[in-house]
C-alpha cells in the first residue's frame, strides 16, 4: 500500500520489479491474486494477461482479438535500491533514492502508528542520523551495533505503517540478529496507545 | 444512502421457510434496515424496527418481504409448478460485496476456466462464443440466450465433458436464474438461481436454489456441488475493487463476452438504480 492505495508488486523472469494499482481494469479483481508467467501477469478472474508495461496482452475469452491499447493497468514507478523496493506515484518526478554500497534486507515489521518523520524514527531507535535519504528513509548509527543500518518507513494511514531495515551485505550474523531485535523493539515504540 | 425507488419497490428473499422455526423473533437485515421475523403458530410475519408490519409472502421455498407499500409483483417461475422437479435450497451465505456484483458474476461464463477449473471450464477451452442478449420489454427483464460453453463437469449428474447450453434470466436487480440443458432428459432445462438479500450497499446474503430433474444424486450431493462452486466465486467477489458495482465506464472495461453484464448495467442505469453503485473516484 502507498498511503491508502492498494498496490500489487511483482517481479517477472527478467528480474524487474513492478508496482501496479491492485485492480484489474476488466472487472476490478485484485491483481495481487494473479499469476506471474514469464514477464506477464495473468489476472485470476478471467485470465486477462498484462505485459511488463501494464498493457493488456491477451483476453482468453477471445483468443483471436488483439486487445485494444486502451486496456492498461495503472502503473506506479518501482525500483530496487539498498536491498529495498521503492515505489512512487507516476506523477511524482522524484529520483529513485541512490544508496551507496551493497545492502542485505533484514526485516519488515508492521507498527500501529507511523513515525511522524525520520527524526522521530531515529529517536525511537535511540540512534544517530548518519545521512538522510528521503523524508522516510535514512542511514543510522545505533549504539552497540557495529554497522550503519538502513531504515525506511511507509505510512499506510489508517492501516498503520511498515518499517523496513537493511544491513550492509558484509555484516555479520550477530549484527543481523541485533537489528532484527531492534525492529521488535520498534513495534513497542510505535504502538497505538503511544499516539495519544 | 436511502434506497432508490427501483430498489425500494422490489420483493426480497430473506431466508428459507425452515430458517424461521421456533417462536423466537428472528432479526433480519435488509437494505440497511433491521427487521424482525415472527412465527406465530407457523404463520410468518415481518416487521420493521418501529414495529410496523411489512408485506410478506412465501414463494420458491423462501420467505419474501418488501419495504414498499406498493411493490412491483414478484416475477414468475412456472417451472416451480412442474411435477418431478426437485428443489434443493442452500441457505444464506454472506458475501462482503454489493449483491449486484454477485448477479454479474453469475451471468459470466468467461471465468469458468479460471475460477471453476476442471469443473465448469478448462483453460484450453476458454473461448466465449457470441450469444444473444435481449430485453423482454413487457416483463422488464433481461435474457441471455444461445450461450454455449465447453464444460468438463457441468453438474452433479454429468458424467463427462460436454458443450453445455445455457440461458440466463435477470428478472429483478438482485435475482438471476440459469437454465441449463438437463444432462439426463431431452428438451428440458434444469434451473439454478440466486435470490440475493442486499444487507448493505456493499454486503449481501446469497440464497441459492437448484430445481432439477435428477434421480441419482442426493440433496447433499447436489448441495455440495453447488456450494463448492459458490465458494470459488465468493473468493473472487470479496476481492473485487470497489465492493460496490461501478457503472461509470471509466472504471471497468468490458469485452464482447461481457454482453450480458453490459446489458445488466445498462438496465440498472435505465431504472435509475443508485443504491449499491460505486461513484467514480478520479483519485482512485
Ligand atoms: S477481472 Fe481481471 S480478467 Fe476479468
Ligand atoms: Fe462462478
TrEMBL record, chain B:
Keywords: Oxidoreductase. Residues 96-270 form the Vanillate O-demethylase oxygenase-like C-terminal catalytic domain. The keyword Membrane does not apply. SUPFAM superfamilies: Bet v1-like (SSF55961). Pfam families: VanA_C. It comes from the Bacteria. InterPro entries: Cholesterol_7-desaturase, VanA_C_cat. Coiled coil: none annotated. The keyword Oxidoreductase applies. GO terms for molecular function: oxidoreductase activity. PANTHER family: 3-KETOSTEROID-9-ALPHA-MONOOXYGENASE, OXYGENASE COMPONENT (PTHR21266:SF60), IRON-SULFUR DOMAIN CONTAINING PROTEIN (PTHR21266). This is Vanillate O-demethylase oxygenase-like C-terminal catalytic domain-containing protein. The lineage of its organism: Bacteria, Pseudomonadati, Pseudomonadota, Alphaproteobacteria, Rhodobacterales.
Amino acid at each position: 500500500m502507498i498511503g491508502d492505495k492498494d498496490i500489487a508488486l511483482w517481479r517477472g523472469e527478467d528480474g524487474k520489479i513492478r508496482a501496479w494499482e491492485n485492480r484489474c481494469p476488466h472487472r476490478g479483481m485484485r491483481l495481487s491474486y494473479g499469476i506471474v508467467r514469464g514477464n506477464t501477469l495473468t489476472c485470476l478472474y478471467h485470465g486477462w494477461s498484462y505485459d511488463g508495461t501494464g498493457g493488456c496482452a491477451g483476453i482468453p475469452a477471445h483468443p483471436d482479438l488483439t486487445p485494444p491499447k486502451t486496456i492498461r493497468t495503472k502503473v506506479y514507478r518501482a525500483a530496487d535500491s539498498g536491498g529495498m523496493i521503492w515505489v512512487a506515484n507516476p506523477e511524482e518526478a522524484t529520483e529513485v533514492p541512490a544508496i551507496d554500497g551493497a545492502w542485505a534486507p533484514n526485516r519488515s515489521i508492521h507498527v500501529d502508528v507511523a513515525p511522524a518523520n525520520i527524526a522521530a524514527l531515529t529517536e525511537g531507535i535511540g540512534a544517530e542520523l548518519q545521512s538522510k535519504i528521503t523524508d522516510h528513509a535514512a542511514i543510522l548509527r545505533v549504539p552497540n551495533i557495529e554497522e550503519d543500518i538502513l531504515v525506511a518507513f511507509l505510512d499506510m494511514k489508517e492501516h498503520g505503517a511498515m518499517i523496513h531495515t537493511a544491513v550492509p551485505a558484509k555484516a555479520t550474523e550477530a549484527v543481523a540478529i541485533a537489528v532484527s531485535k531492534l525492529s521488535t523493539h520498534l513495534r513497542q515504540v510505535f504502538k497505538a496507545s503511544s499516539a495519544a | 444512502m436511502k434506497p432508490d425507488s427501483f430498489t425500494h419497490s422490489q420483493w426480497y428473499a430473506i431466508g428459507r421457510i425452515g430458517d424461521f422455526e421456533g417462536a423466537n423473533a428472528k432479526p433480519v437485515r435488509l437494505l440497511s434496515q433491521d427487521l424482525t421475523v415472527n412465527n406465530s403458530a407457523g404463520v410468518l410475519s415481518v416487521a420493521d424496527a418501529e414495529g410496523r408490519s411489512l408485506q410478506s409472502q412465501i414463494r420458491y421455498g423462501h420467505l419474501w418481504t418488501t419495504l414498499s407499500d406498493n411493490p412491483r409483483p414478484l416475477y414468475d417461475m412456472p417451472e416451480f409448478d412442474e411435477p418431478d422437479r426437485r428443489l434443493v435450497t442452500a441457505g444464506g451465505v454472506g458475501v462482503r460485496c454489493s449483491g449486484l456484483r454477485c448477479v454479474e458474476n453469475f451471468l459470466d461464463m468467461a471465468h469458468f476456466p479460471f475460477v471453476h477449473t476442471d469443473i465448469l471450464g478448462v483453460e484450453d477451452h476458454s473461448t466465449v462464443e457470441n450469444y444473444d442478449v435481449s430485453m423482454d420489454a413487457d416483463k422488464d427483464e433481461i435474457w441471455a440466450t444461445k450461450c454455449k460453453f465447453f464444460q468438463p463437469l457441468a453438474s452433479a449428474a454429468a458424467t463427462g465433458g460436454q458443450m453445455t447450453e445455457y440461458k440466463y434470466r435477470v428478472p429483478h436487480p438482485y435475482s438471476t436464474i440459469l437454465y441449463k440443458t438437463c444432462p439426463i432428459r431431452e428438451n428440458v432445462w434444469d434451473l439454478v438461481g440466486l435470490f440475493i438479500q442486499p444487507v448493505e450497499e456493499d454486503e449481501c446474503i446469497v440464497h441459492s436454489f437448484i430445481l432439477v430433474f435428477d434421480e441419482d444424486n442426493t440433496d447433499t450431493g447436489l448441495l455440495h456441488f453447488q456450494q463448492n462452486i459458490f465458494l470459488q466465486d465468493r473468493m473472487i467477489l470479496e476481492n473485487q475493487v470497489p465492493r460496490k458495482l461501478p457503472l461509470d465506464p471509466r472504471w471497468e472495461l468490458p469485452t464482447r463476452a461481457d454482453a450480458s453484464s453490459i446489458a445488466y448495467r445498462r438496465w440498472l442505469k435505465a431504472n435509475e438504480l443508485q443504491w449499491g453503485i460505486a461513484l467514480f473516484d478520479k483519485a482512485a
